[in-house]
Automatic annotation (TrEMBL):
Residues reported to bind substrate: 19-23, 31, 35, 63-65, 67, 69, 180, 186-188
Binding site for Mg(2+): 18, 199
NCBIfam families referenced in this protein's UniProt entry, alphabetically: PRK14839.1 (NF011412), uppS (TIGR00055)
Any one GO cellular component localisation term in the record: cytosol
Cofactor binding, per record: Binds 2 magnesium ions per subunit.
CDD domains for this protein: Cis_IPPS (cd00475)
Keywords: Magnesium, Metal-binding, Transferase
Listed GO MF terms: ditrans,polycis-undecaprenyl-diphosphate synthase [(2E,6E)-farnesyl-diphosphate specific] activity; magnesium ion binding
Entry protein name: Isoprenyl transferase
InterPro entries: UPP_synth-like (IPR001441), UPP_synth-like_CS (IPR018520), UPP_synth-like_sf (IPR036424)
UniProt-listed Enzyme Commission number(s): 2.5.1.-
Organism taxonomic ancestry: Bacteria, Pseudomonadati, Pseudomonadota, Alphaproteobacteria, Hyphomicrobiales
One annotated GO biological process: polyprenol biosynthetic process
Similarity annotation: Belongs to the UPP synthase family.
Length: 241
C-alpha cells in the first residue's frame, strides 16, 4: 500500500495547538511550562511533515483574542516567540524549511516584528516544508481586511482567497486537513476561509504530548475520507473476477 507521501503530496495541514496550559496544570506546573514544552512539539511535528506528504503546515500560536489573557502569560508567550525565532531560524534554514508568520505585527512587542522579518528572509529559500505560524491572528479580521482591499467586483474566489491568506505567496491556500488537539471541537476563528472544505480531526491529546505518531494517524484518517466538494464521485464499476 502506498504511503501518504506517495498518494497525497503537498498537503496543507493546519493545527490548533490546544492544551498547553491544562497539560502543565495537571502536572502541578505553571502554565508557561506547558507552552515551553509545546515548542518541542512544534519542532517534532514540523520535522515529521515532509515524510507524511505535508508541504505546508500552519500552526495557531496566538489568536487576536489571546491578548485578553493575563499580562504575565501574554508576556511569557511573547518571550517564547522571540526565543523560538532566535534559536530555531538556523535549523529551519538548514533543513529546507521556509518560515512565514501570519497575522498582525503592529501590536507585537518591540523587536519581534524585526526578528520575524529576519527569520523569514533567512529561510526564504526553503522548499521542503512551508511552516506558517499564526500570531495575533483572526480569520474574521483577515477576511474583513481582504474585503476592504477589494476593488474589482469580478474578483474570483481564488484571487480573493489569496488576498485573505496574504502571506502565502504562491503556496496552496486551501487547508486539506485541520487538526485540533486538547479535546475541544471548535475552529476558534482560525483559517475560516481557507478551511471551508478541510477535513477536521479532533484529538484529546494535549499539544505538548502530540507527536509524529499522532500526526501520522491524522494523515492516515484523512486519506480514508471521501472528499466530494459538494458533488458526487463517479460510481465504482464492478468488474468480473
Amino acid at each position: 500500500m502506498p504511503s501518504p507521501a506517495e498518494t497525497r503530496p503537498g498537503l496543507h495541514a493546519a493545527i490548533i495547538m490546544d492544551g498547553n496550559g491544562r497539560w502543565a496544570t495537571a502536572r502541578g506546573m505553571p502554565r508557561f511550562a506547558g507552552h515551553r514544552r509545546g515548542v518541542e512539539a512544534i519542532r517534532a511535528t514540523a520535522e515529521a511533515c515532509p515524510d507524511l506528504g505535508i508541504g505546508t503546515l500552519t500552526l495557531y500560536a496566538f489568536s487576536s483574542d489571546n491578548w485578553q489573557r493575563p499580562a504575565e502569560e501574554v508576556g511569557a508567550l511573547m518571550r517564547l516567540l522571540r526565543s523560538y525565532l532566535r534559536n530555531e531560524t538556523a535549523r529551519l534554514a538548514r533543513t529546507g524549511t521556509r518560515l512565514s508568520v501570519v497575522g498582525r505585527r503592529d501590536r507585537l512587542p518591540g523587536g519581534i516584528p524585526e526578528a520575524i522579518a529576519a527569520a523569514e528572509a533567512a529561510t526564504a529559500a526553503g522548499t521542503r516544508l512551508h511552516l506558517r505560524i499564526a500570531v495575533d491572528y483572526s480569520a474574521r479580521d483577515a477576511i474583513i481586511a481582504a474585503a476592504a482591499r477589494l476593488a474589482d467586483p469580478e474578483t474570483s474566489r481564488e484571487a480573493f482567497g489569496r488576498m485573505v491568506a496574504g502571506e502565502m505567496h504562491g503556496s496552496p491556500v486551501d487547508v486539506d486537513l485541520l487538526i485540533r488537539t486538547g479535546g475541544e471541537k471548535r475552529l476558534s476563528d482560525f483559517l475560516l476561509w481557507e478551511a471551508a472544505y478541510a477535513e477536521l480531526h479532533f484529538t484529546d491529546r494535549m499539544w505538548p504530548d502530540f507527536g509524529q505518531a499522532d500526526l501520522a494517524e491524522a494523515v492516515a484518517e484523512f486519506a480514508r475520507r471521501d472528499r466530494r466538494y459538494g458533488g458526487l464521485n463517479p460510481p465504482k464499476v464492478a468488474t468480473a473476477a
